[in-house]
Amino acid sequence: MSPVEDKREAILAATLRLIARHGFHGTAMSKVAKEAGVSAGIIYHYFKNKDELIIELYRVVKRGFADALFVAIDPGKPLSVQIRELCALCFRYSLQHPREVTFLEQFTNSPYNEPAIRDEVERYFEPLLDCFERAKKEMIIKDLPPPVIGTLTVDVASSLARKQASGVLELDDPLIDRVVDALWEAIRR
Amino acid sequence: MSPVEDKREAILAATLRLIARHGFHGTAMSKVAKEAGVSAGIIYHYFKNKDELIIELYRVVKRGFADALFVAIDPGKPLSVQIRELCALCFRYSLQHPREVTFLEQFTNSPYNEPAIRDEVERYFEPLLDCFERAKKEMIIKDLPPPVIGTLTVDVASSLARKQASGVLELDDPLIDRVVDALWEAIRR
DNA sequence: CTCCCAAGATTGAACGTTCATTCGAAATCT
DNA sequence: AGATTTCGAATGAACGTTCAATCTTGGGAG
Predict the structure, then answer these.
(1) Among A72, A87, A108, B143, which residue has the least CB neighbours within 10 Å?
(2) Is the Cβ pair B151, A142 closer than 8 Å?
(3) How far apart are the first and last CA of chain B?
(4) Name one Pfam family in it (chains A, B) (predicted).
(5) Which domains does chain A have, with CATH numbers?
């Protein structure tokens, strides 16, 4: 990796850490610079301004999440197994990446989340949605709209991961399995 | 209602509207004053500072949400009916109060959400949790931790309400019924 | 192999703006 | 009249952003 990309990614990583801990409001550009070990000015060499930095971080984090889920797709296995693995992966990723989850939830509920960016990022997940579309056609799962399916998988995992991170819930492997079972019973036909 | 309380509530209502539209980051005290039709200084007569204003708004909104759910509790009806009505009420309230939902989601994922405030507000919902505890004892629903049950009801409703508000989903009454059915199948034994 | 220089990378102090908060004075209520 | 409520200009701190100056890099000339 070139040193240039190193610095750019250091800025993105620092922004993620600070926003997860202190929110958008508490994350000043000067703090990002200090956390990343660079000067304040250089951020504007890589990103147009603070908004662009945050939006780019959103793209990167969403892309990473999508990539993590892709390993669940294995056309050799039955769709029901693929979907359950997808759910389980959502949980594992969310639990192992609490900062990413917190950032994504903050972004989603903020004015940053404009339709253009949402549509652009949603495209990363199209192959995963295909998986659900095929399961619908084969009458394996209920014919619910994709956003509902998304809520019953990704959003439930994120919500529980946040509760785990804040200490109000202890999610161990057996409990994750039981929740995945429950979600499967919600969407299966 | 006394004029004093009027002004206080005008400030809270203005804060809710602005935060839902522009986020914490874009909501300045001067804007709150203008939106509420009062001077900037008077806010500090009713609230210690911006943080206290936002935390108090959180209490008020959470309390309103809990109160809206209480009408589902009717000891004359079977627990299974009460729980399904609770879910349905979550949906109706969330859909009719998009600003409240957006604000709550932002608050929950921000550094404002400290354990002390969370615990204090969680107490509003204890009678509702009791309902689920009894259903567990009677072997009607699965023995899942309360936070998991909460996620599978309140958080799912909030998440879908947000998607409806942002236009990516059209939630009509028949679809709400089907989602409530799905959630019931997730938690029932 | 060394020197040099142009282009890009990096710095951090400085700038103008915006923000949360204060406060003395004015208005309103009891 | 005294107490409480309300105002809005003033204050100082913090913020996002800029920019002139400095440093680094890589490659062509000698």
Answers:
(1) B143
(2) no
(3) 48
(4) TetR_HI_0893_C
(5) 1-47 (1.10.10.60), 57-187 (1.10.357.10)
